[in-house]
UniProtKB/TrEMBL annotation, chains B, D:
PANTHER family: ABC TRANSPORTER PERMEASE PROTEIN YPHD-RELATED-RELATED. One of its GO terms (molecular function) is transmembrane transporter activity. It is a multi-pass membrane protein. This is Ribose transport system permease protein. InterPro entries: ABC_transp_permease. The chain crosses the membrane at residues 12-34, 46-62, 93-113, 120-138, 158-180, 211-233. One of its GO terms (cellular component) is plasma membrane. Its main location: membrane. It is found in: Cell membrane. It holds the Pfam family BPD_transp_2.
TrEMBL record, chain C:
This is Ribose transport system ATP-binding protein. It is found in: Cell inner membrane; Cell membrane. PROSITE patterns: ABC_TRANSPORTER_1, ABC_TRANSPORTER_2. Pfam families: ABC_tran. Keywords: ATP-binding, Cell membrane, Membrane, Nucleotide-binding, Repeat, Sugar transport, Translocase, Transport. GO terms for cellular component: plasma membrane. Transmembrane segments: none annotated. One of its GO terms (molecular function) is ATP hydrolysis activity. Residues 6-239, 250-487 form the ABC transporter domain. The keyword Transport applies.
């Protein structure tokens, strides 16, 4: 009987804890939800926390650094216990982060580190690593496809983007890392924006001056889809599709689809850098968050790894 | 007399000469610029923008502005993509659907402007935000890709050596120019923009004109959207926004007045082409993107400034008052 | 003969603080020329706008062709053959003359520009209007715009044509032309509703006169059964002396000398203005009087020529410099050059001398108010309050605001370009007194006027321009209408 | 008589009532909304926008528009950051430098508009592109962070319980309102916007006014930029762009006319606050960003529509018809 009582008591505390949990607000300040990847990420995180019994609200800054500061402040006002921040401009979040923590709201910087902050950092990789990953995909493909090419014989172009400091870092890393491959003659340029159509237009223009380009590395996958749209179109200057490749970063259904199609040269997007599937991402993120929410000590950094995705990787 | 004619010809075509000048400059700077493929390229790249700008120009001539065109394009892109891929509707129905959505959104702008009696610029300032929200809500931020080849033909196909988008542009430009110049409906647009009260008193239904102009702008926005999506072979909600900005810049450059009542479709086409050639040429020459921004701004200022200067030079003795 | 074609019954129209029309009823007969007469702000234009559907009346109805309308719309109004020439012209500046004339005539199908030009020329020809149909309206002078308005109304084959102050900016010969037009129309049994502040015109062409006062109908009389005096007393409610004030105050000092001025429309113009003098300028429309004064005032560029003020050569590059040198200009076009339509009366009046009403940078509101009150009383500006926006005033009252604005500027040399345009007889007399007062104080006045009577009555000397050049100068003893017309027109 | 006064009071303050209404609504929907911290929060968050909008409103009153304000903010942000961190200049010099850059860019806008005699909206359409290029060229797309605490005090400090940015806003709003309403310079701005030709003939140097107004707008843009950077504690080239859009929306909402010559600083402040409260409240309530867009657009339309309707409302029988 005692045992039964104890059991109900335990159940009650558990239920109380549950109820307590659902009163606990977790904020997710995401930089942007304008593409499938980011949108799905925001859903995964929200559902993840809710499955654990917490209340979670997502606020998208829609790419504006100032808006993001406001949203974090608003989360603090709402009494959030924890805010997961995916920074638009991480350097500008140091102070708002500090203020939040002073008022009892923990901050977890996610994917981008908040410079100079004492916040916990969960990252899959730094921008530099992502950039290096993209470069490696390109470099490997060239080594495999043009095994006998001499130094500087293969024309490669980087479609960078430096609209934000973060982006500039990644683009810079692609440039630096790709330079290690001696086979390549590298040109760096920036389309008008980091969108699909801007990249498509830039590719069209590019082939006017450099019809022999074999490789285009893009800041993100959206841009590589744009390059693909041009190369696969009727007016394309690339006749032998197997002799061409483009790579970028971030995974989405569309990009997976294109990567798979590249096996039969029905697409020239031959791979991308992935920050892992959503399950891994969520698991990485939740580990420190759970500790914080339970009031336990956490380590300052949790780093995941990037994955290089190619058609072969899918076969495995 | 002869010299005056030449002078006035030059005055009326300053922008065409500027366009030619810029082309000449780039031909010297880059060997690749002056090739048929590249020029067709520029035309194709800017096809959607020309179509959208023509739509916006009509609204501007009627005395308004459409700031929502970019987001309208985005909504139509998603709706078209969804109809094609998610609902698997046949192509003609899809096109009809996309165009209808465009017209409806345009009508909404016009209707609200008439109903609340506020300036179209203000209305579309509000609806652009709304349309953006709607587009993302429909798409759920997802891209719709792998579109049907028959659909992609609209953006990527060729008729003989001429890309389909270029043909669409030419057809639209010719029709709209004709309507604007030669039909009563067209002249009423100018009248409504030039002096709405006078037009109303002369029996022109200014509200109907406004509604019609917005419907046409919505229609052309939808065509632009379809061309854009078909060219990319994929649709997502970020396609379109920003177009309003380029379209208005092109219109202004092309001599469409902010105040209404003035401007020619021809000018708009030239305006877009100047912007398009600039960005193509600067990339071919290899200018960095930020240097491009600065140069583009400067050229805009100089072109518009020179055009205005030419037009303001006082026309002497237009009216000869002979006393009989 | 006197068959009623149109009757307006108990028309009431209210604006905030004003009853513009208060139960006004008037009948108009077929084929008559029917004048509306009343002081500025009496409600004449408002009545017309109700008739054309430009504004909605609050109460009352309109009977026409056996139909009764509680509210008019522009469409219905036109469908009954009513055409209106508005006081503030209503043309579309960015379109050509031909397009404006033909606007609304057709609404479907294709435009035939050749035909439009032909129609326009056909309309212009009988009336000696020499304007190219392809000219953009915005390139026309106000007077020419007025001619186009008139032509446009005639072209529509209307049954009723309303003319709201059509002659306010026309010179004698154009007015004669207009009379001819009206007589021709009358023969075709067209009804003309005619508004004018020029009394002599009423006696020349109208059959009946309806008098309005303060938004109310006073009476309707047959023109040939009345005279000027009784009309005026019905209109203003008291007797008026109408003689031009005499004076004798011309000094020998030359305050302004223009030497060999060549500008956009003028060639080699020279003249002198003495202290205490009223110097009249005459000429046909397009003679370049306005342009000359704009150049003197620094509003337009001069190609060459010198200007001496009180013997000192001054390079007047902008109106600001002119004003600083004691010149004031009352522009010809009140809507575009004179009034700030969306600003209150008090700020309109204060704009030229606002610096004087300020300490350091801060404006003294009380003084702005006091000054506005002063001029509203002096010029009898009809308004509910000095906080009314100028755009809500009647045409004549706007003109008075423009006058007040320049008078407040306290200049030594004042250029009046068509000063009494649209101003009623009573107020006009006040303005003449004011001008006399000004010259008696030792100021000098240049007056451009197309109103021959006023020009002859007020000027001490008249200079006639023709095609931008001085074609003659008349001293007071030599004044005659014929002499001036001869100098003004080409031989 | 009494009722008329109340009616006209309501008519003149529709937006204030709308603001109060929105606040009331959010107080009911979210327990966190109506707290001193949150309201101060909203004020602080929108401080920079209020300052920039006041600048833009002056340009609009003078008959123009400033589309370049967002990019101007970006250039000033980078210049200030660079002076502080890269050049390690002392704070007063840094501030002076930032403000000077703002004024110079503003003057450039005004100068070009005067020189080429083209509408300020067109000029700033071109200069916004130029400024953006310049900002990125200076910053090299890098962020400048870890700014000095004394500098950050401007954006994050408190005087008593009041945040410094709020104090700056109040000071600026009061001064500008005073200048606009009570000085002749202010009246000249209205005159130049209401009817430039009449103003010129009345001895107002319209070109000088235009130049001055742009300089002030540049100055206020620089202040906004400094507040913004100090609040974030970091500067980069993406800070600012987009402000032009929000500022113009706020101005329009606050009753500044597109045509010029009309509007009050008070209105602009209310306009920004409505937008600010909306976005704060909607987040507190937990609306998704895209739903927020749609709601924001709707509320904009309704507010402006209702305001316009109120002002245009026919006066029925308010005036008692006295028969003399
Ligand atoms: N939109 C308006 N708002 C307020 N009051 C107005 C408006 N329009 C006209 N009024 C007022 O209505 C009255 C009648 O004006 P109306 O223009 O009919 O006068 P009018 O007889 O034509 O005078 P004028 O001889 O000066 O042209 C005036 O007192 C005027 O101030
Ligand atoms: N390019 C122009 N831009 C603006 N206004 C102009 C232009 N050219 C002429 N005007 C206006 O047209 C009018 C000139 O009228 P016009 O050429 O008939 O001379 P005028 O002799 O002064 O006429 P009036 O005898 O009627 O006074 C002036 O009011 C002037 O301001
Ligand atoms: Mg009148
Ligand atoms: Mg004149």
């Amino acid at each position: 009987e005692d045992a039964a009582k104890e059991e109900t008591a335990a159940e009650e505390t558990a239920r109380a804890a549950e109820a307590d949990k659902s009163d606990t607000l977790v904020g997710f300040a995401i930089s942007y939800t304008g593409n499938g990847f980011m949108q799905q990420l925001s859903n995964v995180v929200k559902e993840g926390f809710e499955k654990e019994g917490y209340t979670c609200e997502v606020a998208s800054a829609d790419g504006d650094a100032t808006t993001q500061i406001e949203q974090i402040e608003n989360f603090v006002t709402m009494g959030a216990k924890l805010v997961v921040v995916m920074g638009v401009d991480p350097t500008g979040l140091t102070d708002v982060g500090k203020r939040a923590m002073e008022q009892g709201t923990a901050i977890v910087a996610f994917t981008t580190k908040i410079e100079g902050g004492e916040t916990t950092y969960v990252g899959s990789a730094s921008e530099a690593e992502i950039g290096e990953g993209i470069a490696q995909l390109g470099s490997d493909w060239v080594d495999k496809t043009f095994a006998d090419a001499g130094d500087g014989e293969i024309e490669a172009v980087i479609f960078g983007y430096s609209g934000t400091p973060e982006a500039a870092e990644r683009s810079e890393a692609i440039k630096t890392a790709l330079a290690d491959n001696a086979k390549l003659k590298i040109t760096y340029m920036e389309p008008e924006s980091n969108s699909l159509d801007a990249a498509q237009q830039a590719a069209e223009n590019l082939f006017q001056t450099k019809p022999d380009t074999k490789l285009i590395l893009c800041y993100n996958s959206g841009m590589s889809n744009g390059v693909n749209a041009y190369v696969m179109s009727g007016g394309s200057a690339v006749k032998d599709k197997s002799q061409f490749a483009t790579f970028g970063s971030d995974i989405s259904e569309e990009i997976i689809n294109n990567i798979m199609a590249s096996e039969n040269n029905e697409s020239v997007v031959r791979g991308c850098v992935s920050l892992g599937d959503f399950d891994t991402i969520w698991a990485d993120l939740y580990a420190p968050c759970a500790l914080i929410l339970e009031g336990k000590e956490v380590e300052p950094e949790y780093l995941g790894e990037i994955q290089l995705v190619t058609a072969e990787a899918f076969k495995k | 007399m002869e010299t005056t004619k030449v002078q006035s010809f030059i005055r009326n075509n300053v922008l065409v000469f500027i366009l030619i000048g810029i082309c000449a400059l780039f031909s010297i700077l880059s060997p690749n610029f002056l090739s048929v493929t590249n020029l067709l390229n520029v035309a194709t790249q800017n096809a959607y923008l020309i179509i959208a700008s023509i739509g916006v120009s009509l609204v501007m001539i009627s005395g308004g502005t459409d700031l929502s065109i970019g987001q309208l394009i985005s909504v139509v892109a998603i709706c078209t993509g969804a109809a094609l891929e998610w609902m698997q509707l046949p192509l003609p129905i899809v096109l009809l659907f996309g165009l209808t959505v465009g017209v409806l959104l345009g009508l909404f702008n016009g209707f609200v402007a008439n109903l609340l009696n506020i300036h179209p610029m203000i209305v579309t300032l509000a609806t652009m935000t709304m349309f953006q929200g709607i587009s993302f809500l429909i798409s759920g931020s997802k891209a719709i890709y792998d579109l049907d080849a028959s659909f992609k033909y609209i953006g990527q196909g060729y008729v003989g050596p001429i890309p389909v988008p270029v043909i669409i542009v030419i057809v639209i430009a010719v029709i709209v120019d004709f309507v604007a110049k030669k039909t009563y409906f067209g002249r009423f647009i100018y009248a409504a923009g030039g002096n709405p009260e006078a037009a109303r008193l002369a029996g022109v239904s200014v509200k109907t004109i406004k509604l019609a102009v917005f419907a046409i702008c919505g229609f052309l926005g939808a065509v632009a959207s379809i061309v854009m999506v078909a060219r990319a072979g994929s649709a997502n909600s970020t396609m379109g926004p920003g177009t309003e900005f380029n379209a208005i810049t092109a219109c202004v450059l092309g001599g469409i007045s902010f105040i209404g009542g003035e401007g020619r479709v021809k000018g708009v086409v030239v305006g877009v082409l100047i912007l398009g050639v600039l960005s193509n040429g600067m990339q071919l020459v290899g200018l960095g993107i930020y240097v491009q921004y600065v140069v583009k701004g400067l050229i805009l200022l100089l072109s518009i400034g020179y055009d205005t200067y030419q037009k303001q030079a006082k026309v002497k003795k237009v009216v000869t008052t002979k006393t009989a | 003969m006197s068959e009623t074609i149109l009757s307006m019954k108990d028309i009431t129209k209210r604006y905030p603080g004003v009853v513009a029309l208060n139960k006004v009823s008037v009948d108009f007969h077929k084929g008559e020329v029917h004048a509306l007469l009343g002081e500025n702000g009496a409600g004449k234009s408002t009545l017309i706008k109700v008739l054309s559907g430009a504004i909605e009346n609050d109460e009352g109805s309109i009977d026409i062709d056996g139909c009764t309308y509680e509210k008019m719309t522009p469409k219905i109004s036109r469908s009954h053959g009513i055409e209106v020439i508005y006081q503030e012209y209503n043309l579309i500046n960015s379109l050509t003359v031909a397009e404006n004339i033909c606007l609304g005539a057709k609404s479907k199908g294709l435009v035939d520009y050749k035909e439009m030009e032909q129609i326009t020329n056909d309309i212009f020809k009988p009336y000696n209007i020499n304007i190219h149909p392809k000219t953009l309206v915005r390139d026309l002078s106000p007077a020419h715009q007025q001619l186009v308005e008139i032509a446009k109304a005639i072209s529509k084959n209307a049954k009723i044509i309303v003319m709201d102050e059509p002659t306010a900016q026309l010179t004698v010969s154009e007015v004669e032309n207009l009379y001819d037009i009206i007589r021709t129309l009358q023969k075709k049994n067209v009804t003309i509703i005619y508004i004018s502040h020029r009394m002599e015109e009423l006696f020349t062409i109208t059959d009946r006169v309806t008098i309005m006062r303060d938004g109310q109908y006073v009476t309707t009389v047959k023109t040939d059964e009345t005279d000027r005096k009784s009309l005026i007393s019905l209109m203003v409610g008291r007797e008026l002396t109408e003689t031009y004030p005499g004076r004798d105050c011309i000094k020998d000092e030359i305050v302004l000398e223009v030497k060999n001025l060549t500008g956009y429309k003028n060639e080699d113009v020279s003249f002198k203005l003495k202290k205490g003098e009223i110097l009249g300028f005459s000429g046909l429309i397009g003679a370049g009087r306005t342009e000359l004064m704009r150049a003197v005032f620094g509003a337009d560029k001069k190609h060459s020529g010198q200007i001496f003020i009180k013997g000192k050569n001054v390079d007047i590059k902008s109106p600001k410099i002119a004003i600083m040198n004691g010149i004031g200009l009352i522009p010809e076009d009140r809507k575009w050059q004179g009034c700030f339509l969306n600003m209150t009366i008090e700020w309109n009046i204060a704009i030229t001398n606002i610096r004087k009403l300020s300490r350091r940078f801060v404006v003294n509101d009380a003084r702005v108010k006091a000054q506005a009150e002063e001029y509203v009383n002096k010029l009898n500006i009809k308004t509910p309050s000095i906080l009314q926006k100028a755009g809500n005033l009647s045409g004549g009252n706007q003109q008075k605001v423009v006058l007040a604005k320049v008078l407040a500027g306290d200049s030594d040399i004042i250029i009046f370009d068509e000063p009494t345009r649209g101003i009623d007889v009573g107020a006009r007399h006040e303005i003449y007194l004011l001008m006399s007062e000004l010259v008696k104080q030792g100021r000098s006045i240049i007056m451009i006027s197309s109103d021959m009577e006023e020009l002859l009555g007020m000027s001490d000397r008249i200079i006639v321009l023709r095609e931008g050049k001085v074609s003659g100068e008349l001293a007071r003893e030599e004044f005659s209408q014929n002499q001036i017309l001869e100098l003004a027109s080409l031989e």
